[in-house]
Structures are given as C-alpha cells and as structure tokens.
Amino acid sequence: MSTGIVRPFVIAWQFLTAVPLSRNHHNPAPFELAASMAWYPVVGLLLGGVLALTAWLLSVVIARVALDALLIVLLVTLTRGLHQDGLADTLDGWAGGRTPAERLAIMRDGRIGAIGATGLILALGLRYAGLAALPEADRLPVLLCMPAVGRWAMVVGAVAVPYARTEGGLAESFLQNLKTHHVLLATVWLAAALVFAVGVVSAVVSLSVTALVARAVSAHSRRLCGGVTGDTLGATNEVAEVVFLLLGPLLVRAG
Questions:
Q1: Does 233 score more than 70 pLDDT?
Q2: What's the predicted TM-score (pTM) here?
Q3: Is there a domain that residue 48 lies in?
Q4: What is the pLDDT of residues 40-58, one digit of tens each?
Q5: How many domains does the chain have?
Q6: 12 part of a folded domain
C-alpha cells in the first residue's frame, strides 16, 4: 500500500481512536486532515470488527445483558470518549447560551453541565437499549457497521458548512479543505460495507437516514452558533450511531 494511501488512513485512525499506529504521521497539514476524512468509515469498520469479534467470542461466557454494556465500554475506551465529550459539550452550549458567542464559550468549557450530563446518559441508555433489542442473528452485522455509520455522518455533516469560531480551531482544517472526492470515497467505503452486511435496500435506507441526521445536526448548529465545531461533529457521530442501532432490527430484516 502506497504512502499516499497509508498516511491519510493513519491520520484518521490516530485522530479517531486511542490506539497509536505510527510515530511517523504526526503533525498533519490542514489538507491532510481533510483527506483523512475519506478513511473515517474504514476506521469505523475496524472498530466495528473489534466489537463484533468481541461479541462473538464472549457470547458463550458472558450473559447478553452484561455483554451489551461491555461493548459500549469497549467502544468508548477505544475512542477515548471523544464523541461522547462532543455530545455533552454541544448540548450544554445549545441549551445554555442566548447568543452564538455564549453558546460557543460554553461548549469550550471543559466542565459538563446538567443538560450535557443528561443528554449523555440518555444517549448511552438508548445505545444500550438498541443493542439489547437486536435479535441475536442481527447483532454482528449491525455491530460491524455502526461505528462506520457514525463516522460517515461526521463527513457528511462537514460538507459545505462554515466553522463557527472566528478565532479558528482544529475542525476548521477539516471543513475548509474537505473535497468532493473525499466525501465520495468515504461514501463508497460505507455503502460497500452496508450492502455486504445488511443488503442493498437497507444500505440505501441507512445512508439516507444517516445523511438526514447529519445535515439536520449541522443545520441546527449553524442556526444556533453560526456554523459547526469539532464538538458538533462528535455529537453528529453519537446521534447517527444511536439512530442506526435503534433501526437495526428493521434494517436487517428489510435487507
């Protein structure tokens, strides 16, 4: 695999997970950060593979009710709670400020507020309920694709939207340099995985619903904050994953 392919993937992996791969791909340029988004669904599929393999191996020794909780803990650990933090910060900012500047200031505050904590608890609860509701035969394909769906949602949510902070920030590099071919490649990765896992019909439904969720979150953030931030994109991932999980049984049957 050429360096031109490896570097964007490694950048995506190291940005989205807590598992280091290489010391040779740090300090990426802004255009490289954007290019790495094409590989977000691939990172998601690898994370989903870890979840599916864990569920398969431990299903014979751990009760389903405990294993579902363990899978959530595993995913949060592998991603260092990046997206959960984004969801909590986003909800605090949206609910706690009266102006875009106030909302952005609250989102930057590292402390979690009541609204953010409540939203985080509800999101984790819905995630657990979605896992618990999955029929046994549907678990592995849904677990495989769920993290990829969330990370593709971040790519879609970043398309043609401004960065909210006038002083700049890390997410600005993604938003300003994201190109059409990055989005198309990310879509091809996820579409292929979904077709393989849940069938053509369910793949189309999943992509459509996820795109609607991603664009809705970005539009709401733009209305409240003047644009999106890294926290907003993290929240997009969380919402998309939960929606995909809750629709999981229907999607697998339709496929």
A1: yes
A2: 0.95
A3: yes
A4: 999 999 999 999 999 999 9
A5: 1
A6: no
